[in-house]
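ok new one. same drill as before - structure tokens go in, u give me an amino acid for every spot. 742 of them this time. try not to just spam alanines like last time pls lmao
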């Protein structure tokens, strides 16, 4: 009869995770012991009983079987923060794959000692009016950086020094010059660890609207009645979602509970943070990628010790060790950045739900364009949904013009700007109002479309677009289907078949040709290598330093620009053609966000969408800002084709140094899945979209099933198979309900 052994971690700190001890599992525990459980073990020469965590279970003894010790028992359940984080790690491992160690590393903060640093901040010495008049003066002298700083100081009496040189992009010399002029002073405080500590200003509390009140009331009625739940707030930007979050957080504070607010890094702007600081002062802290590991660790310690009640940050802030977590907010719930790109490839929404359950907390999701997942569940009653229908900032929905470039071509306009867009740009420049031009760069992967009729070459089996490859072949990265590149368009016979490529830089050049006097800012991957430069361009544009902002999807998120009254979307099709089942959803979200950028202020806005597919449902519904209409069509497509959220999908990615071996392993693993159960649908294997990176070959296959649990089972079987195949050179990764087909 075989034996069972478990690897146990005794010291649960990030650095010692790889140090495990093996113990025998007594037979009475065979059915109960699971990875992630807390056990009691005899430890050291004295065999004192200690608490440990089980990270894996197997049948192979790595040591002298005669001398190996035995697990004493399962530890009493206690509800320490550690136990909850370990349980969360076990959940992540089980539902998203990878090892327990990888999951623990995701969940536990890396330990770092924090030097007591000297922190500097700026304090204003003039009142608001004086600052603003000085700002006007600087603007006249074209001292834009100084003007920017003065504007920020007018909003907030104290600003951390790093923000000034970083996010605001103001050089030290400009700060000095303003210090000499008596506008501000630089203050140093030692031993001050909070990356941001601002005094809460007496803040004008707003009276909640009727719709907002309903949410807060219902939420606490549930909560105080002992019912925790997941809520979805569906409301356009400016409908007051953030205000609701802050009320819920305040309510949690009254109840002695803490809150985590997840905001995608890209939307985590200075303005948003300021609102939270004003409301909660130094009870709130921020976790973002600009913090050093020491500062991150420090934030966790402060949370654990009860020094803060609220943490704001991207995905990883989810693991903040609050002792009595009451609320998790996930703003912009539909954002792709909530899915981890490295193993374990977890989705923050699912993990947040489990984290909330473990702490008896509630989860609040918010979005203007909810993910299909969230809306699907809400419509089935799994989440409670609340609408926010009014825009509280005033402003009306923009008028949208949809333009088909084919019509332009026919009318003799060869420019990349349609006549309508040119006319409106001219008008805005004359009026001194701002415009944004947005180019979607996703789906750049070289798909082929017809310039005359707009037809996109698609896979006959998968309804995703084919990618053009060298050697004149079109390839489906989803199922592996291939066909030769046609010479003529199969629909209209035109010979103008083109891969889509038009960068933001090219648009900038064309714009300058057409409107030589326009002041233009450009934002894309090239101009924003760092987060600071991103924020710098946005605040320069917000400060009126340019007439037109050109950019990729980065510019449609975060920031509010009240002076923008025109938005142009160039080539909306770039994302429609992307070879991916989520492209309709992504296009709708991007277009809705882009269009919504126009007319935030008092002047009504207009938007121009240039598209070869003006009749595509994602375009039509985005132009009308009609989420429900879009959802109805999209969910039908997902149901018919068995894509998430109607069914579930597991991508198995195989990476290897030699093409043949990687391919063989991919084929072998997909055969293993096929043999598990007949109703499991297997697609592929095929080379991944980027078939080779750094000489590593990549293959992928997909497993589909209506039940997520079945896919977890398939993953477990594959992991077991891979364990037997050790040692092997290839890497295998699992991606559940992938954000794109790869
Ligand atoms: P969202 O998060 O949905 O974009 P916000 O909460 O940021 O919306 O609200 C948009 C603007 O409306 C903010 O300037 C906010 O201060 C203001 N606001 C929110 N709720 C109210 C209210 N009940 N009354 C007046 N103004 C409000
Ligand atoms: Zn054609
Ligand atoms: Zn295909």
């Amino acid at each position: 009869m075989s034996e069972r052994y478990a690897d146990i971690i005794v010291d649960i700190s990030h650095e010692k995770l790889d140090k495990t001890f093996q113990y025998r599992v007594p037979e009475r525990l065979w059915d109960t012991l699971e990875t992630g459980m807390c056990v009691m073990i005899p430890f050291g020469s004295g065999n004192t009983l200690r608490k440990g965590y089980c990270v894996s279970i197997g049948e192979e003894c790595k040591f002298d079987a005669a001398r190996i010790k035995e697990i004493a028992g399962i530890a009493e359940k206690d509800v320490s923060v550690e136990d909850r984080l370990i349980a969360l790690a076990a959940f992540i491992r089980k539902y998203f794959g990878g090892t327990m160690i990888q999951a623990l590393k995701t969940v536990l903060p890396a330990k770092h000692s924090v030097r007591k640093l000297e922190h500097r901040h700026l304090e204003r010495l003039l009142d608001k009016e004086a600052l603003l008049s000085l700002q006007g003066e600087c603007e006249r002298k074209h001292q834009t950086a100084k003007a920017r700083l003065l504007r920020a100081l007018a909003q907030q009496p104290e600003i951390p020094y790093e923000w000034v040189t970083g996010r605001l992009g103001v050089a030290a010399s400009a700060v000095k010059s303003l210090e000499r002029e008596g506008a501000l002073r630089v203050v140093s405080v030692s031993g001050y660890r909070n990356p941001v500590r601002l005094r809460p200003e007496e803040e004008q509390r707003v009276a909640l609207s009727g719709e907002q009140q309903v949410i807060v009331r219902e939420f606490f009625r549930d909560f105080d009645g002992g019912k925790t739940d997941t809520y979805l707030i569906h409301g356009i930007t400016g409908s007051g979602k953030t205000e609701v979050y802050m009320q819920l957080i305040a309510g949690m504070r009254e109840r002695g509970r803490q809150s985590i607010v997840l905001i995608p890094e890209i939307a985590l702007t200075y303005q948003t943070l300021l609102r939270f600081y004003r409301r909660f002062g130094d009870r709130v802290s921020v976790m973002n990628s600009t913090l050093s590991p020491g500062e991150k660790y420090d934030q966790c310690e402060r949370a654990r010790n009860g020094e803060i009640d609220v943490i704001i940050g991207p995905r990883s802030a989810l693991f903040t060790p609050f002792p009595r977590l009451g609320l998790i907010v996930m703003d912009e719930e539909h954002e792709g950045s909530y899915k981890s790109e490295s193993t374990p490839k977890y989705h923050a929404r699912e993990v947040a739900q489990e984290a909330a359950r473990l702490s008896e907390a509630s989860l609040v999701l918010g979005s203007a364009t909810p993910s299909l997942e969230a809306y699907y569940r809400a419509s089935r009653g799994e989440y409670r949904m609340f609408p926010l229908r009014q825009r509280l900032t005033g402003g009306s929905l923009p008028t949208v013009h949809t333009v088909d470039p084919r019509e332009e071509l026919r009318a003799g306009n060869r420019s990349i700007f349609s006549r309508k867009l040119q006319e409106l740009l001219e008008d805005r420049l004359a009026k001194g109002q701002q415009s944004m031009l947005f180019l979607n760069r996703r789906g750049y992967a070289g798909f082929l479309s017809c310039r005359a009729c707009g037809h996109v070459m698609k896979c006959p089996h998968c309804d995703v677009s084919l990618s053009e490859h060298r050697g004149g072949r079109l390839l489906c990265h989803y199922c592996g289907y291939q066909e030769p590149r046609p010479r003529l368009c199969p629909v209209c016979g035109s010979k103008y078949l083109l891969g889509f490529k038009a960068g933001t830089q090219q648009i900038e050049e064309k714009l300058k040709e057409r409107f030589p006097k326009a002041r233009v800012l450009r934002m894309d991957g090239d101009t924003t290598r760092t987060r600071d430069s991103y924020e710098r361009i946005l605040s320069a544009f917000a400060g009126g330093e340019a007439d037109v902002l050109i950019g990729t999807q980065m510019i449609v998120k975060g920031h509010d620009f009240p002076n923008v009254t025109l938005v142009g979307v160039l080539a909306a099709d770039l994302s429609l053609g992307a070879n991916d089942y989520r492209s309709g959803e992504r296009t709708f979200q991007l277009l809705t966000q882009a269009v919504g950028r126009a007319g935030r202020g008092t002047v009504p806005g207009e938007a121009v969408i240039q598209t070869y597919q003006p009749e595509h449902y994602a375009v039509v519904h985005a132009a009308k800002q009609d989420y429900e209409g879009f959802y109805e069509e999209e969910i039908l497509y997902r149901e018919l084709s068995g894509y998430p959220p109607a069914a579930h999908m597991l991508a198995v990615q195989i990476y290897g140094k030699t093409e043949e071996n990687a391919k063989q392993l991919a084929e072998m693993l997909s055969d293993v899945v096929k043999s598990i159960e007949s109703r499991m649908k297997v697609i592929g294997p095929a080379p991944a979209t980027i078939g080779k990176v750094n000489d590593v070959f990549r293959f992928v296959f997909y497993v589909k099933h209506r039940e997520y649990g079945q896919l977890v089972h398939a993953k477990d079987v594959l992991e077991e198979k891979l364990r037997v195949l050790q040692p092997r050179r290839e890497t295998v990764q699992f991606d559940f309900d992938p954000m794109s087909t790869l």
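Residues 220 and 251 are 8 Å apart (CA to CA). and btw Residues 399-443+502-640 form a domain with the Rossmann fold fold (CATH 3.40.50.300).
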